[in-house]
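Chain A, query sequence.
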Amino acid sequence: MRKHIGPTLLFLWSGIVVAVAVNILSEELKDVLLSHLPLVAVGLIVAAGTSTLIFREWRSRESLEDFEFLVPTAELTPAHVGFEVIKSGRRTDALRRPYFPLAYIHRSAVPYDERDLDPVATRYDEEALLQMLRRGESLLLIGGHTSGKTRTLYEVIKRLPDFHVVSLRRDAMPGERALQLLRDRNVLCLLDDLNHYADARIDIASVFKRMRQMAPRLVLAATCRDGPELSKVELEASTLQRVAESFQHRLILRRPDAQEKSRLRALLHQADDRDCATLGEICMSEAFDLMRRRFDGLDSPARDCFRSLQLLSAGGIEPLSHRRLETVLSGVFDRPIRGSALRDQLRALERLGLIVSRGDADPVRAEPAYLSGEEGAWYFGSDPHASLDKLSSCLLNSKDAAGLNALALTWASSGHEPSAIACWEQLIAQCSADDDPEEFARALNNRGISATRRADFQAAVQDFTAALNVAPSHGQQALRALAFRGLSKQRLGDHHGAIVDLQGVLDHPDPPAALLGDALRALGSLLSDSEPQRALGYLTKAIELPGAPAAVVHRARFDRAHFRSQQDD
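Chain A, predicted structure.
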């Protein structure tokens, strides 16, 4: 109904104006208006004022639809982040992730780069996370499925005073009127599941830039799944990589110990009869049992439809489009389900809560809790990762270059380098650069990077050069090829060629911090003998570069210290 308020008011006032204009010549109407002129004037002013307020409220509410939501932190609810509140004594229906208000274990996080240290040098409790956000420091919280990322971030944000929380839609850029709603407000932009925005139809970096012009303080808080999903965000040249570089803190939730699990089970009145790796699995135990019974009641096509979603997800492939689903259903499960028949199966999954998007939505968004791990293996019938070879064949047959690149990156980040190389080589051999030059160049670049890990720098230079020949000249893949070719030439001893390529990275108007940091550090090393002051400046810039990876900064610090010690000698 909100959508019709503005047109209704416009029609109403147009009618009033027309009526007065038509009847103004009537002496009888004129006498009536003149005899009650003060009352008529007051009535018109009140009506006009009321209409103006209503119209402004309508415009404001219409602008709010450009966001997923925009609310003060005090009004943020579990529903905003995909939870359903489960009150004491009530059973969950498993359509959404359950939220138990009185059952919560406070969490702590550690720096992602220190996650494998024992003991961990630095640990942040929820109070420390809150203080980070209050200081305006952006935060990325990393963890696996059901590890508690969203719940922890929600509990922290709720305690953040004097802020509004905004969540971006992935299908449309917010309009100017919507962005004006952020003016003079402290804003926290929440991206729950950063991977969800991997193939969004919005330029997140541009939206952030415009939001910063409106809000006196803009803080970014996000969650991201660990593993191939995080690797894709960090390694791929995309707007998400730029977002990932902007986080001042990259933290991973500390794994719960046995005592914390027991405390949560006690709060939920659960028996200790199920082996759960995460606190989220404990909270969802009842939902898992119910969902399995519901899944058994589905017909075979609907079950295979969900398994197709699982297989694509295991391959790290986004978006989960209808076209890809049809390809996997036909090629892996021998079910040629298309069009309206596919939408019928997706609606069945929506009714159960296995997907969180609408049944006819394209792309599909599945509920992550049921996709992987032990729970996901139950639905698939085995570990879906064991079927990635079949998925590779399907993607190759459909010439899905973007899907093949994503799958290869998943293999590479999981330690299966030979499978990744084979996937890139098949893509390069059987797909056409003319159909998708950016993805074709991405495959060449990724194969070249793989060659550098094997110290085959000659092959790497060939791949990077080939990528430069096919990639759009101002695209991210051309920039990646230039940067990595320069680094490879440095390793081959071609210092002049390396300097030319790396200087080209510096000349780019907006290079990602990771590439720029590598280029600055490498130039500092290359010019240390011939132009020492310039070299020192490059190393200092690499160290001070916002968003530069910790490893780049560390190497630049070491190089600068070594360089200065040589100068002193």
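Confidence is low (pLDDT under 50) at residues 1-5. Strands lie at 67-72, 83-85, 97-99, 108-111, 124-125, 139-143, 164-168, 186-191, 217-225, 249-253.
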